Amino acid sequence: MHEFLKRLPKVELHLHIEGTLEPELLFTLAERNGVMLPYASIEDVYAAYDFSDLQSFLDIYYQGMSVLQKPEDFYALAMDYFRRASDEGVVHVEMHFDPQAHISRGVGLSTILEGLSLARQEAESELGLSSALIMAFLRDRPAAEAMQVLESAKPYWDILDAVGLDSAEKGNPPEKFSEVFGRAKQIGIPRVAHAGEEGPVDYIYQALDLLDVCRIDHGVQCLQDPALVERLRHQGTVLTVCPLSNVRLKVVESMQAHPLPQLLDAGLVVTINSDDPAYFGGGMLANFMACHQAFGWQEAVFCKLAANAIDNAFMGEVRKAQLY
Ligand code: HPA
Ligand code: ZN
Questions:
Q1: Ligand 1 in contact with 84 (CB < 6 A)?
Q2: What's the whole-model pTM score?
Q3: CATH number of the domain at 2-315, please?
């Protein structure tokens, strides 16, 4: 099964590029940029990756980003990930990036996007790996700040495939960002949002009704509400589920306890994704393998999951046809 899953052309719809920062590159960039890290060794880093919930992860995730300062740092981050992903059979990556987490440290949008854009071009030409770009707003920051970021991104609107919403979910409902997402819609930028990871089902309704999203990132809490499940099924709304992330952030107790089989049984459009592979124990292949081991899924299920991701990617019809 490992060989089959490695060869299966995989499309990743839910990835935070800053969450691909492996400890080795973290140390390299820290040294290059003169950043002090609270870790003496790679073992220290892994010891710190023992999360109790989303917030405990976010604290470490934002700290790690402090080493990303120049275009070449963002280039190295993305290119390293694209090579690893390509090696495990990923053919297309839709990556969130968190501009506010960089702008607040004095690192501007042009720096971030210069590095990411170069890596995307090189991945396409050297690895045959295509990608899409999702500019995410931090939901635990003020909505006015998100609006400012959206407006200041005007020179880049045409390279954004979507805007997203991430960071600390509880207490930061999608409703807070209605205006920002309304503006994105007016500009013509598609929308996705994290909802129902740790937060209540009501946040999934809000993401659909107030943000008009085409995908729900995570969404695993939807099973608490049969009417919502029916609506998601009827609309064909895709859920970008991240099983290893959910285990590591204690959204679920274990892989065996993960609701993925119920989500599939309910007829929902499910995809499997890695979220933050450097922090949660592996990339797409590890997530697929974990599902095989926990649920005993065979080839047909994985082909369906891979097809769901292709169908719902921000990808032209020609590329979709290539991947089928
Ligand atoms: N949830 C919310 N925000 C995030 C995550 C996540 O899993 N990863 C990076 N930002
Ligand atoms: Zn995520």
A1: no
A2: 0.98
A3: 3.20.20.140
